[in-house]
């Protein structure tokens, strides 16, 4: 589902990614752990199309997003980026929109989906996430765990092939770690979702991962298998 080859990225004189290679199979949950400043977030931003690498290639669902550091043609880039969902560390929900509106916005605006179709899809997703009774609520009325589930729902509404999580437990109470792990495993099992997670939380990583990689100083290393 995802292949990264020789990925390099510099910010000024600082080389953040140093020839990163990564391959993730369909339906696999891969977790990358490591210290701040090690390159994890930059790698995630490159994979999700938010940051362009200086060199290397990213292939998603057998299509190039970047090849030798160059972006795919614009029409292909937009199509490929739809295959990647990103759940931000601080959720980034629209505060002036209800839960239902947060989830229907991108399908309507980006995909041109009919409003009723978008609403029906959003309601189905909210049922999967256990938020059927929160359709008309606003973000300020939700707990941290509920906000995260809405953020996941917003990503799922675009029907991605790969969903990426940036520090999914960092903004939550520690007691929520198990619930988050169970939800991500449910995405993999019931939605056949391929998942990439970056985190500092090793306990969470061992709960959820099929594979754990460590990243430091722009280099991916060490691999531990969990099933």
UniProtKB/TrEMBL annotation:
It is a peripheral membrane protein. GO terms for molecular function: ABC-type amino acid transporter activity; ATP binding; ATP hydrolysis activity. PROSITE patterns: ABC_TRANSPORTER_1, ABC_TRANSPORTER_2. Belongs to the ABC transporter superfamily. It comes from Clostridium polyendosporum. The keyword ATP-binding applies. This is Polar amino acid ABC transporter ATP-binding protein. Its main location: membrane. Residues 2-227 form the ABC transporter domain. The keyword Transport applies. It is found in: Cell membrane. InterPro entries: AAA+_ATPase, ABC_ATPase_HisP-typ, ABC_transporter-like_ATP-bd, ABC_transporter-like_CS, MetN_ABC_transporter-like, P-loop_NTPase.
